[in-house]
Design brief:
340 residues; alpha/beta; ATPase_AFG1-like; cell division; ATP hydrolysis activity
């Protein structure tokens, strides 16, 4: 029995709606990054590229242009290049989103936007391409977290959109995600990204940020799993409104709700409860679950679960495939969320 102190709801019974205007208003950093600054970025001294990237991004946010340091696109230093965008390339958990939010907060402009790749493509889907361009045109800054290469169609829509916005004076800042079949654990194939976006390649300078996942620095690396009684007690103690769903029911619901509405699916919750977690074997189900985990993590909601530990929710075959980095990032976030 659960305490009356906590209201229990079922995500499988929610039918969230989100208008194009609401999508536009929601294009701000997740609340965990409301106060993110360059000074609050936790630099790991073992990886000098973190401090170097932070310093260069401070210059970029102030309206200047950092010096070219070589890297992916040159073998020797060149004269400074004026480019409208920076691209943060690195593994998960090295603070790319924090730095992206720091750029957003540091740019002194009224019209600026921050969202994930999927939020921008959903905005185009809801409002139409022309209306989206008209709404975003002239904005000072567009921050794109987790740039996706999973869908060539969406990628090319974003390519065209960014090209038009750059033409209107918009500056760009983005972080990387993993394209299918990208090689190298925790690393983004920068050339693949640049090849995919064709004409936009010259708009970005790529800054490499090395490091280890900060979420693992203080955790034992395993997702917490509860017995039924402890699970019920945890939800009862959550306070506010907690969700309680069978894992399979949630997976089915995620197929019915567009990923752009996942944030509204968890609106008002204090905790997320999942009963009977099992290992996922369907790629589409797994990718939708990754998108859901991202929204839960951004909202800083604790997850309580029974069944298979959530760090084992993606099978070995999936972890060896083209979406490996995406699944590993989700596992990292699941470990943190179940231990919070």
């Amino acid at each position: 029995m659960t305490s009356t102190a906590t209201e229990i709801v079922h995500l499988a019974e929610r039918h969230p709606q989100l208008s194009g205007e609401e999508m536009l208003e929601s294009l701000v950093p997740p609340r965990q990054f409301d106060t993110a600054t360059f000074d609050s970025y936790r630099v790991d001294a073992s990886y000098p590229s973190q401090e170097e990237a932070k310093q260069e991004l401070e210059v970029f946010a102030s309206g200047g242009q950092p010096e070219r340091r070589g890297g992916f696109f040159s073998r020797k230093p060149k004269a400074p290049e004026i480019k409208p965008g920076v691209y943060l390339d690195g593994g998960f958990g090295v603070g790319k989103t924090h730095l992206l939010a720091a750029i957003y907060h540091a740019v002194p402009a009224r019209r600026k936007f921050f969202g994930s790749f999927i939020e921008y493509t959903a905005l185009v889907g809801a409002l139409g391409y022309k209306n989206t361009v008209d709404l975003l045109r002239g904005s000072a800054l567009l921050c794109i977290d987790e740039f996706e290469l999973d869908d060539p169609g969406d990628t090319m829509v974003m390519t065209r959109l960014l090209g038009e916005l750059v033409g209107s004076g918009t500056r760009l800042a983005a972080t990387s995600n993993t394209p299918p079949n990208a090689l190298g654990e925790g690393r983004f194939a920068a050339q693949d990204f640049l090849r995919e976006i064709h004409a936009m390649a010259d708009s970005f300078r790529t800054l490499r940020i090395d490091g280890v996942d900060f979420r693992q620095r203080s955790l034992d690396g395993h997702a917490a799993v509860l017995e039924e009684r402890a699970y019920d007690d945890a939800l009862a103690a959550a306070g506010g409104t907690a969700s309680d769903d069978d894992f399979d029911a949630l997976i089915a619901q995620l197929a019915r709700v567009h990923p752009s509405r996942y944030i509204r699916l968890i609106d008002g919750l204090s905790a997320v409860g999942l009963r009977g977690v099992r290992q996922l074997t369907d790629q589409s189900e797994a990718l939708r679950f990754v998108a859901f985990v991202d929204r839960v993590y951004d909202a800083q909601l604790p997850i309580r679960a029974t069944g298979t530990p959530l760090d084992d929710v993606f099978g070995a075959e999936m972890l060896a495939g083209g979406y490996r980095k995406k699944y590993l990032r989700a596992v990292s976030r699941l470990v943190a969320s179940t231990n919070s």
